[in-house]
Amino acid sequence: MTIQTQTDSALFIASSQQILSEGGLEVQIGTDFDEYREILLRDRPRQALGAPFDPGLQNLNEGNAFWLTGRDLDGDLMHTQAARLLDLKHEDLGGYMFNRFREFPPAIPDIDLDRSRFRASPGARNITGRVIYHGEVWMSDKPGLFRGNGLSTVLARYGLLTAMQRWNPDYIFGFMARTVAFKGFAERMGYMHNEPGALRWFRKGSDMPMEGFLSYLSNEEARYLLEMPVSDLVTLPAAKAA
């Protein structure tokens, strides 16, 4: 095991699975992104599959990417996330994204790629090596036990652990809209750093930019985070004893 002892990791997984089960959520992890695309077409029609995880645009396989879904007791899709390994051994994230940020657009229509831009934040200049892009994070607005009790945080940490187990990356990063970042979502996800001004996206016909933050954490920070008791993240009464 690369991030903790075998026992610590097994305890984290067991505790997470118990808490999610008590919250009425079933997790599925897969690496077939054609299957994932079909899931989204059927169960998440209002938000299309993002370009970074589109199998028609990217070379995705079990060695470099996975997706994760969570369903409630009714079988309804409540949560998605996905992760993808990038090889940045010979350049930092700032240089990589300067040339390729248009391959990571937000999942909204009518993005004006010509007017949009990426600016390397201080952290982007330090992110190099085996790097995970973490995206596709979506939470259903269906009312019920899922919201307001920390289960989304448990799901996020579960995804981080899965990425750490598979690839032991040097860094994990994602992009976050300013409106979402201001609500503290990066902290709930587990990101230790959240740098503003990394992205400015324009929609066609609009002069109002949408700002994207760069959220990230290092391998050491991820290990620190995943050592924390997962039961401390939730407010489900039954999970207190997990």
Would you write up a description of this structure?
This protein is an alpha+beta fold and 242 residues long. The protein has one domain (6-230): Gcn5-related N-acetyltransferase (GNAT) (Aminopeptidase), CATH 3.40.630. It is built from seven helices and eight strands. It has helices spanning 6-22, 33-43, 93-100, 151-167, 178-181, 185-189, 219-226; strands at 26-30, 65-71, 77-88, 117-118, 129-139, 171-177, 193-201, 210-218. It has an eight-stranded mixed sheet, sandwiched between helices. Helix 1 runs antiparallel to helix 4. The two termini are 23 Å apart.
Q: Top keywords for this entry?
A:
disordered C terminus, 242 residues, 26% strand, 8-stranded mixed sheet, Aminopeptidase
Please provide a brief summary of the model.
This protein is an alpha+beta fold. It is 29% helix and 26% strand. A hairpin with an 8-residue loop joins β7 (193-201) and β8 (210-218).
Largest sheet: 8 strands, mixed
Report the span from N to C terminus.
23 Å
Number of contiguous helices: 7
Structural class: alpha+beta
Second-tier CATH architecture: 3-Layer(aba) Sandwich
Task: Provide mean pLDDT, rounded.
Answer: 90
Q: Could you say what the CATH topology is called? A: Aminopeptidase
The CATH superfamily turns out to be Gcn5-related N-acetyltransferase (GNAT)
Q: Taking strands numbered 1, 2, ... along the chain, how are they ordered across the largest sheet?
A: 1-2-3-5-6-8-7-4
The arrangement of helices and strands along the chain is: HEHEEHEEHEHHEEH
Number of strands: 8
Overall helicity: 25-40%
Uncertain runs are: 238-242
**Mind telling me the C-alpha Rg?**
18 Å
Which of globular, elongated, flat, extended, rod-shaped describes the shape? globular
Structural domains: how many: 1
Question: Which CATH class is shown?
Answer: Alpha Beta
Hey, roughly how much beta strand do the residues contain? 25-35%
